[in-house]
Specification:
Order of helices and strands: EEEEEEEE
Shape: globular
Low-confidence stretches: none
Largest sheet: 8 strands, mixed
Number of strands: 8
Number of helices: 0
Radius of gyration: 17 Å
Length: 110
């Protein structure tokens, strides 16, 4: 099976390379045994970088400088990247999830 994109969390940013921690979904083991892997994704001048605002369903062009560690992204390539640990991104999409309202503090116990 081919893999053309990965999803995960940015764990590091160095110049034009994003380290993205992705979960390897293995159909033969339980989800809690799935392994995590760091994939190094290179951004070049052809990479389309956008953010998707889930509240407004808008896709907005952004720059690599808009990424920060902890962001959830989806990165794609023009080639099969199934067993690769690094690739040049054709596109990277940043997901903006609406902020959840803060939970009220638990009632004080006496």
């Amino acid at each position: 099976a081919e893999a053309l994109s990965i999803s995960g969390e940015i764990t590091g940013i160095q110049n034009n390379v994003l380290s993205i921690e992705t979960t390897i979904q293995d159909p033969y083991v339980l989800p809690n045994e799935w392994k995590k892997q760091i994939i190094k994704v290179t951004v070049n001048d052809k990479t389309k970088i956008t953010k998707f605002d889930m509240q407004t369903a808008e896709q907005i062009d952004i720059a690599i400088s808009d990424f920060k560690v902890g962001d959830q992204v989806n990165a794609g390539a023009k080639e099969n990247i199934k067993d690769k640990t690094e690739f040049v991104a054709d596109y990277i999409n940043l997901y903006i999830t609406p902020a959840l309202p803060a939970l009220p503090p638990p009632p004080a116990t006496e």
